[in-house]
Write a structure and sequence with these properties.
Helices cover about 35% and strands about 30% of the residues. It is built from seven helices and eight strands, in the order ββααααβββαβαββα. Strands 1-2-3-4-5-6-8-7 form an eight-stranded mixed beta sheet, sandwiched between helices. The structure holds coenzyme A (COA). The site of coenzyme A (COA) has 23 residues, from β5, α5 and α6.
């Protein structure tokens, strides 16, 4: 049977060009296509199978996250699936933000536009104290999105990988934004 978990706690977020609505099980085909694309996965993982994406999607629909107003949002431009944004709980008052878009949508500021809306929701509505993000240091586009939404670079972490991706030797780029910094930038 197909699991269905209707979204409860996360509102629809709207930007100039995007409608960000909670991820649902019905988005699975779009998620599979995204994670099967080597260009999308270049700084994340090897391209993933449909079974793998299905398991991950189940975890992404965690109702406990939803109840906190956190989780995954799908971005639609004129009704077309652009990609997704996450804001997931990492501890008391702490969230992690991230994004993954189809290559056809890259380079138009859409990742930044959606990330700002999710970040504002996290601080303004959920009441988070701190939001962190990380990416491979060689992922310059993702680093640029972090910087454009105001995240401050906090360091590089070197990790051990069984099957490292090209560029892994440069480490993971870490960034964060505190509630105080967000307030200072938005008020
Ligand atoms: C990272 C990603 C979301 C960016 O999406 P996007 O819609 O192109 O992002 P935006 O247009 O909002 O901003 C991208 C910024 O990166 C910059 N950029 C892109 N490629 C770059 C590169 N190779 N070197 C330097 N800067 C780069 C752009 O110039 C832009 O900055 P600017 O507006 O100051 O010019 C998209 O590339 C993606 O989905 N990649 C695959 C998944 C992924 O890697 N996710 C992040 C994992 S942590």
């Amino acid at each position: 049977m197909t699991p269905r978990r209707p979204p409860r706690g996360r509102p629809v977020l709207e930007t100039d060009r995007l409608v960000l609505r909670p991820l649902t099980w019905d988005d699975l085909p779009d998620l599979e296509a995204l994670d099967a694309d080597p260009e999308v996965m270049r700084f994340l993982d090897r391209p993933r199978t449909a079974d793998d994406v299905r398991d991950r999607t189940f975890a992404r629909l965690d109702p406990a996250h939803d109840a906190m107003g956190l989780g995954y949002w799908v971005g639609l431009e004129h009704g077309r699936f652009v990609g997704w944004w996450l804001l997931t709980p990492e501890g008391p008052g702490l969230g992690e933000i991230g994004w993954r878009l189809h290559p056809w949508a890259w380079g138009r500021g859409l990742a930044t536009e959606g990330a700002r809306a999710v970040l504002d929701h996290g601080f303004g509505t959920v009441g988070l104290d701190r939001v962190v993000a990380e990416t491979m240091a060689v992922n310059l586009a993702s680093r640029a999105v972090m910087a454009k939404i105001g995240l401050r670079h906090t360091g590089i972490e070197h990790r051990e990988w069984d099957d490292p991706l090209p560029g892994a030797e440069e480490g993971e780029w870490l960034a964060e934004l505190t509630r105080e910094e967000w307030l200072a930038a938005t008020t």
